[in-house]
Specification:
The chain folds into two domains: 42 residues, no CATH class; 79 residues, Mth169, Chain: A (2-Layer Sandwich). It has four helices and three strands, in the order H-H-E-H-E-H-E.
Length: 123
């Protein structure tokens, strides 16, 4: 049984560092014979990706929304562009995460032929 507990501790520290920190702080890892040399914290961050049609591309959904707003009496609305919003949680190095998020936004989340994207990081 002790062998399984030690393995569980090592697995949670290596694979799930935030979980292992919480488990350690609540005393779950204080089993007799359990060995924990260090608790590892990862630095997580959030990225927001905004994807919208390019200004040269017709946006029929935005035009429909603008027409509906005008119908509701909001005559000051000149243009509406509808897009997509993604919030992604990452861990690791900030520079590497920025490169990775740029690649994901370009290759997966948007169609670069007709859409623009913008990536923002929240600290």
């Amino acid at each position: 049984m002790e062998k399984q507990k030690d393995s569980l501790c090592l697995l949670s520290i290596c694979v799930y560092p935030r979980l292992s920190a919480a488990i350690y702080s609540f005393g779950v890892l204080n089993w007799p014979g359990a060995k924990v040399s260090a608790v590892v914290y990862d630095r997580s961050m959030k990225a927001r990706v905004f994807v919208s049609p390019k200004t040269t591309v017709l946006d029929p959904q935005g035009q429909t929304i603008r027409g509906a707003l005008h119908g509701l009496g909001h005559a000051s609305i000149a243009d509406v562009r509808q897009g997509k919003f993604f919030e992604i949680e990452l861990s690791g190095d900030r520079d590497r995460a920025a490169k990775e998020m740029d690649q994901i936004a370009r290759d997966v989340l948007s169609n670069p032929v007709i859409e623009d994207y913008r990536v923002e990081f929240l600290d």
